Amino acid sequence: MNVTIDPSWKVHLYSEFEKSYFQDLAQFVKREYGQYTCYPKGKDIFAVFDHCPFQETKVVIIGQDPYHGPDQANGLCFSVKDGIPHPPSLVNIFKEIKVDVEKPYPKSGNLERWADQGVLLLNATLTVRGHQAGSHQNKGWERFTDAVIKTVSTRLEGVVFLLWGGFAKKKASLIDKQKHHILTSGHPSPLSANRGLWFGNKHFSKANSLLARMGKEPIAW
User: Fold this and answer.
1) Average pLDDT, stretch 4-10?
2) Distance (Å, rounded) from C-alpha 18 to C-alpha 182?
3) How far apart are CA 21 and CA 162, in angstroms?
4) Active site positions, annotated
5) What is the pLDDT of residues 82-129, one digit of tens each?
6) Taking each helix axis from N to C terminus, what angle separates 203-213 and 88-100, rounded to the nearest 10 degrees?
7) If DSSP codes are grouped into helix, strand and coil, which group holds residue 109?
8) Is-above-0.70 flag for pTM?
9) Could you tell me the superkingdom of the organism this chain comes from (predicted)?
10) pLDDT tens-digit readout, 52-78
11) What ranges in the chain are assigned the alpha helix state H?
């Protein structure tokens, strides 16, 4: 696995790439991509960093795994490539945005437009074997992405973290609550949303209010 990552991030994460766990992870990913169909495409594994330079990070959304179906994953959590049907969680995200900030439901589920405005769409695990959810968990990715969260917490100020569901909420322990803002809710998956734990959280308008209060440009969701 060749680590080609935006220079603004590389300067902060370089020490992680040198660690033995990451070397083992790189070998694992290389083997998996050589033997199986894996997602996202190799060039998109670190796309989350390419679209959102380090110093421009304003909002962090944490997902768990990339989508494991053909042509879905593009390296950003919850996001799919242009022209791909929207997965159920993304449908519920867009439904909440429509009510919360009165934006029409979009045609494309590609969230690069958010990332380009400073939204870090970070999956805890950056790769997956096709049609096998969770197949690349506990191989080292989580240690790396935890280091990413800690780096954002330590070196930036006033970032809004949106933690959706039990898995993401556990990441709150990595974040300095004196310097940053944390909004939590249920996960946008149908299971959680249908139990009343997602809709009405107003995270998108709340995040923009917090950004505006800090003199930062709100996100065009």
Assistant:
1) 92
2) 31
3) 28
4) 65
5) 999 999 999 999 999 999 999 999 999 999 999 999 999 999 999 999
6) 60
7) coil
8) yes
9) Bacteria
10) 999 999 999 999 999 999 999 999 999
11) 7-18, 20-35, 47-51, 88-100, 112-115, 141-155, 165-169, 190-193, 203-213
